[in-house]
Amino acid sequence: MRIRKRDIAYHIGKIAYRIATIGIPLYERYLLGKIERRGELPNHIGIIPDGNRRYAREAGIPLKEAYEKGAEKLREVLEWCLELGIKCVTVYAFSTENFQRPRDQVETVMELLTEKIVEVADHPLVHKNRVRIKVIGRRDILPEKLREAIGYAENKTRDYSDRYLNIAIGYGGRAELVDAVRKIAEDVKRGMLSPNQIDEEVVSKYLYTAGLPDPDLIIRTSGEERLSGFLLWQSAYSELYFCDVYIPKFRKIDFLRAIRVYQQRHRRFGR
Question: Which residues are within 8 A (CB) of 252 and not within 5 positions of it... i.e. 6 or more apart?
Answer without folding.
Answer: 28, 76, 80
